[in-house]
Design brief:
Oligomer: single chain
Number of helices: 7
Structural class: mainly alpha
Distance between the termini: 45 Å
């Protein structure tokens, strides 16, 4: 069963815009999740390049990915969590880096435990997920050396 089939089972969206153009998959996801995948009216992927150095936007994107997961039953994209981890380390905020890495790993593991991998891309096989897992021990080490950070 495809992502859109699963989503359409939750809510029946309109497939076309008023001008007759087909809606994008992001627009359909936004409609059936009541905008859970949006940050300030934009889809998270629209902010990925322009806001990748903005920690606050990346954290908002993480929240939107988690909201979308809860409403649509999709795996959250690792990109935003990895960006928060990178930016947190640059700011020497190791507690935040650890928290976002652990949160992402936990929700992904819980997602696949509940849903399996059939019909879903297994993000655990991808480089960003692996990078998050790999950076966690170093982040914990840095936090241990700097407990106030």
């Amino acid at each position: 069963m495809s992502l859109l089939s699963k989503l359409f089972g939750k809510k029946n969206p309109t497939l076309h815009k008023p001008n007759g153009e087909s809606k994008t998959s992001g627009e359909l996801i936004s409609e059936v999740t009541d905008g859970a995948n949006l940050v300030e009216g934009k889809q998270t992927w629209e902010l990925a390049e322009d806001k990748k150095h903005d920690l606050n936007y990346m954290k908002k994107c993480c929240d939107a990915e988690l909201n979308t997961m809860n409403k649509a039953g999709t795996v959250p994209a690792p990109y935003y969590f990895e960006r928060v981890a990178i930016l947190s380390r640059k700011e020497k905020n190791y507690a935040q880096e650890v928290a976002y890495c652990e949160k992402y790993i936990e929700v992904v593991e819980d997602f696949y435990e509940a849903n399996g991998t059939e019909g879903f891309e297994n993000v655990r096989q991808g480089p960003r997920y692996k990078a998050i897992v790999k950076r966690l021990p170093k982040a914990k080490e840095l936090l241990g050396k700097n407990p106030n950070k």
